[in-house]
Design brief:
- The longest helix is centred in the last third of the chain and has 20 residues.
- Helix 1 crosses helix 2.
- The protein has a single domain, classed as Nucleotidyltransferase, domain 5 (2-Layer Sandwich).
- Helices cover 32% and strands 28% of the residues.
- The chain is globular, with a radius of gyration of 14 Å.
- It is α/β, with parallel strands linked by helices.
- A hairpin with a 5-residue loop joins strand 3 and strand 4.
């Protein structure tokens, strides 16, 4: 089981979705809120609103922007990036590979020790006290 104490700051990043279902807008369609964080500190480096249209998890542009946001706060790329199984296998994995980052897929449940608080905070913010998505 993975845990933040296993890592040093900057050694590994985690890419994950904050939302559990697409965010739907009337004008621009639906989006996923994709985040990237440091595994040791659980500090969120950046968030990208990624359109859900198409088969890709995200476009190459979104992948580059997400990795660049993380790099601007971390000052170096990590050796490893963890992603939930079945997610981020397209453009984000390819961009990470170009940066010599090894992408490791793990069950989403193993990442909750890192991501759980951020996901819960997102839900609380988006759902408010009524329990409905905003």
């Amino acid at each position: 089981m993975l845990h933040p104490s296993q890592f040093e700051v900057g050694d590994a990043w985690i890419a994950f979705r904050l939302n559990d279902r697409p965010i739907v807008t009337l004008e621009d369609g639906s989006f996923n809120c994709v985040s990237i964080m440091d595994a040791a500190s659980c500090y969120i480096f950046g968030v990208e609103m990624v359109p859900t249209a198409g088969d890709e998890d995200m476009s190459q542009l979104h992948a580059r922007r997400l990795l660049q946001a993380a790099l601007s706060k971390s000052e170096r790329y990590p050796a490893t990036m963890f992603v939930p199984e079945g997610q981020f296998q397209g453009a984000l994995a390819a961009e990470a590979a170009r940066k010599s980052i090894t992408v490791v897929s793990v069950p989403e449940s193993e990442l909750l020790v890192f991501t759980g608080e951020a996901i819960a905070g997102y839900r609380e913010h988006m759902q408010g006290k009524s329990g409905r998505e905003a």
